[in-house]
Amino acid sequence: MVLQAQEGRLTTSPAESTPRVLVTTAVPVERDAVARAFPGPAHEVRLPGVTLHRTTAATPAARPYDLLAAGVGPALAAASVATALTAAALADAPYDLVVSTGIAGGFAPGAPLGSLVVADEITAADLGAETADGFLPVTELGFGTVTHRPPAFLVRQAATATGARPGTVLTVSTVTGTAARAAALRARHPRALAEAMEGFGVAEAAAAHGTSVLEIRAVSNPVGPRDRAAWRVADALAALTEAFGKLAPVLESWTPHDDQ
To answer: Across residues 228-250, what is the average pLDDT?
Structure first.
């Protein structure tokens, strides 16, 4: 089923064969970069707590995409995405996939400025405890998880379509600003290609609803000493638009059964 807006509520209409996709970013400028990859205007769908921007479907057989600027950081991102997923479930029109996206810091040399990274692991880098012997992730304390793994087939397809490099994308609550912290993160996560602030929160919300998740990021700055003059935000946003133009056919043809 497809969600439609009616008097501030979500209603349903006959389903198309393509999956229902929720694309979530931290801030509106990232959401708008994604929206530029799709033809026609987007319109707002207001829900209690969040506002979706619904794209115009590229073809009659395709579904529109729902875009959500969910907020900065894992907690707000999780809350906003959970709100959207719950509204969809209550309307008997659940999403098939949530895509966490936006700009990110890249670990040199694997993720240079302007490049794309797709997560084969979405990992909370600082969820745990500091001890005299070093950092312990929350899993080693006997609680929860620190890593979500997106569907492997979808990751491969996304990487092929966009040229994104697959690897670990770290979620942090404090953006790295020193070489020492960058080195410590790489030592704990040798496959890390990028860090951002929302992916793990989005993945936690998706997992609670049994919904698949994907994270793809465009690199705007190196992870390490904070140098705003060296950031290339406009280039990363342009890369994001281009990526979703190439990614859309992959998402529209994917089903959860592809990874079973």
So the answer is: 94
- Partners of 246 in the β-ladder: none
Assigned token pair, 32: 């708008």
Spatial distance between the Cα atoms of 93 and 75, rounded to a whole number of angstroms: 25
Nearest CA among 33, 20, 28, 19 for reference residue 217: 33
pLDDT class of 58 with cuts at 50, 70, 90: low
pLDDT level of residue 159 (50, 70, 90 thresholds): very high
Burial status of residue 63 (CB atoms within 10 A of its CB: 0-12, 13-18, 19 or more): buried
Tokens 């990028």 -> residue: 194
Structure tokens at 210: 């049994």
* Residue closest to 68 by CA, chosen among 91, 89, 47: 47
Whole-angstrom Cα distance, residue 200 to residue 147? Answer: 8
Joined tokens for residue 220 = 């705007």
Q: What is the pTM of this model?
A: 0.91
Q: At what angle do helices 199-208 and 74-90 cross, to 10 degrees?
A: 30
Longest dimension (CA), the chain: 60
| Mean pLDDT for the stretch of residues 88-106 | 96
How many other CB atoms are there within 10 angstroms of residue 109's CB atom?
7
Q: Which two tokens stand for residue 127?
A: 């969820």
Task: Name the residue with tokens 């899993």.
Answer: 139
Nearest to 259 by CA among 213, 227, 193, 224: 213
**Sign of the alpha-carbon dihedral angle for 199, 216, 139, 183:** negative
